[in-house]
Structures are given as C-alpha cells and as structure tokens.
C-alpha cells in the first residue's frame, strides 16, 4: 500500500499519512480495549450470594413424597446434590450442623398424554411428565427461610415398548430438570 522507496517516505505529506494511520490504529486498539472492559464490568467470578465459594455448608434432605410414584425422593435429592456440588457455592455435608438445609415435599407427579398410537387411539405414544415440588431452603444461622416456593419440572417421554421402563429412565432426566431449576434459587436466592 505504501511506496517502498525510502525517498518518497521522507516527504512531509507521506509522513503525515503514516502518522495518521498509526494514530487511527492506536485509537481503534484503545477503543476495543475500553469496550471489552466495559462489557465485562458487571461480571463476577465465584458465588453471587456475597460469600466465598465453599465457605458455607449445605445439606439436602430427602423430600417428603405425597405421590404414588416410588423413588422420586431419592432421585430428586441425588440430582440436586450433584448440581449443587457442580456449582461449588456451598460445600455439601451429611453429618454435623450445616449452615443451610434444603427440604421440601413432592406435591404432584402427573402424566398427560400428548399423542396416541396411530392404529390404537387408547394407547399413549408420547406423554408429558410434570413434577411439582415445594422447595424450602432454611438458613440455620439466621433462622430464616431463604426459599419457600413451588418448583415445577416437565419433560416429554416417548413410550416405546414398556411404559414402566420408559418412565423409569425419564425419571432421572426429570429429576435433573428439577435440579437445574432449583439450584439457582438456592444459590442466588429468589429475586
């Protein structure tokens, strides 16, 4: 782009062009850095609740099951423990006095047919599973409830072959969906 002849670079006009181009590059670089810093201004590493990661302990108790579906309580507690452990805000404990206790009750487990077999309109092909849980998160230090609300999880299931085994497999995914919805409420609190 610029002439390679050193004689031509010595002319005042070309020196001004070269210095102007250098100033534009510097201004563009400074603008990019300023935009990058401004975009990251609201981001924080670590827990959002205002304390250091792992400094507070939490216990996830089994949920009281008011439905006829077996093994729901164990699946929900396992999925929620796994999700909280991945988050890292709290340190899970099973013995001693934790700072925070998670408990609750399973209120509803419902199946809704979405579609039926083409040649048998009484046999469900796809169904929606819905789970409603009253989630209670108690801060034992302060003696208050951090969260006390209903959390609903849903998923669609294709019933191929055996309905019982398809629902059993879907139960794990439904518990993970519940954990994905409940963990931010526990970690960040209710807004």
Q: What would your notes on this structure say?
A:
The protein is flat. Strands 1, 2, 3, 4, 5 and 6 form a six-stranded mixed sheet that branches. About 20% of the residues are buried. The chain starts with 5 loop residues before the first helix and ends with a helix. The protein has helices at about 5-10, 10-40, 70-85, 165-190, and strands spanning about 55-60, 65, 90, 100-115, 120-140, 145-160. It is of the alpha/beta class and about 190 residues long. A hairpin with a 2-residue loop joins strand 4 and strand 5. The chain folds into two domains: about 5-40; about 55-190, Double Stranded RNA Binding Domain (2-Layer Sandwich), CATH 3.30.160. Helices cover about 40% and strands about 35% of the residues. The model has no long low-confidence stretch (mean pLDDT about 85). The longest helix has 28 residues, at about 10-40. It contains four helices and six strands. Helix 3 (about 70-85) packs across helix 4 (about 165-190).
The CATH class assignment of the largest domain is Alpha Beta
How many strand units? 6
Using the coordinates shown, work out and report the CATH topology of the largest domain.
Double Stranded RNA Binding Domain
N- to C-terminal separation? 57 Å
Number of domains: 2
Quick structural gist:
The protein is an alpha/beta fold and 191 residues long. Helix content is 39%, strand content 33%. It has 2 domains: 6-39; 56-188, Double Stranded RNA Binding Domain, CATH 3.30.160.
């Amino acid at each position: 782009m610029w002439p390679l002849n050193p004689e031509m670079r010595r002319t005042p006009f070309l020196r001004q062009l070269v210095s102007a181009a250098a100033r534009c590059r510097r201004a563009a670089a400074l603008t990019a850095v300023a935009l990058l810093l401004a975009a990251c201004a609201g981001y924080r590493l670590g827990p959002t609740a205002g304390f250091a990661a792992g400094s507070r302990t939490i216990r996830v108790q089994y949920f009281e099951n008011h439905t006829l579906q077996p093994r729901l309580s164990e699946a929900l507690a396992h999925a929620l423990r796994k999700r909280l452990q991945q988050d890292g805000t709290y340190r899970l404990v099973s013995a001693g006095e934790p700072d925070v206790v998670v408990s609750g009750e399973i209120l509803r487990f419902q199946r809704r047919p979405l579609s039926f077999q083409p040649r048998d309109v009484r046999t469900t092909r796809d169904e929606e599973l819905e789970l409603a849980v009253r989630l209670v998160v108690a801060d034992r230090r302060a003696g208050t409830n951090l969260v006390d609300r209903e959390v609903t999880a849903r998923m669609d299931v294709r019933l191929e072959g055996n309905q019982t085994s398809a629902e059993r497999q879907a139960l794990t995914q439904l518990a993970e969906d519940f954990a994905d919805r409940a963990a931010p409420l526990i970690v960040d609190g209710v807004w």
